[in-house]
């Protein structure tokens, strides 16, 4: 098995412990981030769609920060939503600010029927920097 370690944000929400999964795993020169939703610290969803999307991005930023990375290091992103006609245009509008004008990652958007009470989720893979042991 490849060497791997868990990356946890400074302020993890309750879903990780409640459901027994890692926020992210560093392995093989990559950071594999679990799907991030607009979960408040207690694990409950932010009720309004735009606030939920923004919080999902903030939660993702917290994991990238914990790994010593930024959105510039993201090479692949998958967006999922139970309300894709509403969520994807909103997310696509917000994404350029995250990439800071750099080349955007590969992107897949999927409409789904269930996200455990959430409306939007983003999952990414990022490359590790050599200074981070990647």
Automatic annotation (TrEMBL):
Signal peptide: none annotated. InterPro entries: RutC-like_sf (IPR035959), YjgF/YER057c/UK114 (IPR006175), YjgH-like (IPR038743). Transmembrane segments: none annotated. It holds the Pfam family Ribonuc_L-PSP. This is RidA family protein.
């Amino acid at each position: 098995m490849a060497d791997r370690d868990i990356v946890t944000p400074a302020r993890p929400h309750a879903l990780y412990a409640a459901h027994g999964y890692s926020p992210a795993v560093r392995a093989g020169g990559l950071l594999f981030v679990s799907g991030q939703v607009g979960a408040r610290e207690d694990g409950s969803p932010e009720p309004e769609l735009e606030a939920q999307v923004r919080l999902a991005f903030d939660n993702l930023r917290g994991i990238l920060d914990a790994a010593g990375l930024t959105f510039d290091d993201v090479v692949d992103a998958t967006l999922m939503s139970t309300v894709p006609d509403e969520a994807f245009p909103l997310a696509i509008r917000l994404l350029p600010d995250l990439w800071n004008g750099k080349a955007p990652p590969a992107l897949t958007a999927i409409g789904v029927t269930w996200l455990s009470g959430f409306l939007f989720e983003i999952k990414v893979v990022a490359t590790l920097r050599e200074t981070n042991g990647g």
